[in-house]
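This follows on from our talk about sequence and fold. I would like you to pick a protein and set down its sequence and fold. Go ahead and set the record down below:
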Amino acid sequence: MAFRRPRRNSNRVRPKLDLRKTLFVLPNLITLGSVFCGFNAILAVAKDQPTEKDVYGAAVLLIFSMLFDMMDGRVARMTKTQSAFGLQIDSLADIISFGVAPAMLVYKWVLHRAPIPGILTAFVFVSCAAIRLARFNVLSSSATGAPTKPGKYILGLPSPPAAGILISLMVANHGVGGALGDERYTVLLFCVTIGLGLLMVSSVRFRSFKELKLNTATLVFVLFAVGSSVFVWKQFKPQFVLVWLLSVYIIIALIETVRVLARRLRGLEERNSVPPPMPPPMPH
């Protein structure tokens, strides 16, 4: 007697694919791509005497890390998958790719010539990046920990542009045959590394470019950026364009800060120059 196979219940409810949960993974995978590039950049120079080619290859990896960092936030906003988890993992990725990795690269490139000051300078950069990212997380989170809408300005220099200056200098150094890594520029690169670290923890406000509008000021700025980049490309090397654009970003913030301070001082002087009101006459 043959056994009959029990019929499957065709009315059983199949689990539905939650597209939102699936898309939630996408920006986090892009963030991990940034970590992958930063980790491999550290491995590329983790030698006793890395060559100029090793430093250049590691710097190129960090440029890809910057591209991943620009993509993950935009993908999260496009797919509406912003979350507290994404905010935290993005900052943890940044401390590796834009804190530890560039500090390691600049130390192996130039700062190792003065071992103790070089280690301290690299540590200052990493520490400032960690403080800046912690402050950003606090300011960008609501009471529940969820990320808030980014504003027009960011307090302190973001870690990707800060690291980008060091990275672009290494790329430019490769373009000029290693001339920027010469002994005569050692002190200057020490100062640049410390200055970038201090800007990250400063109260200088940097534009986030989240609320750009198509107006005359924006058009003039774009034309200036393109025109000046073409000039730098022609007069120097293409590798110096990124150095120039990131430097302009910092200069704009410093100029706006000076203007705000001058306006406040002017208002304070005007307030102090106004004589106090006369008291009412005493009755006879």
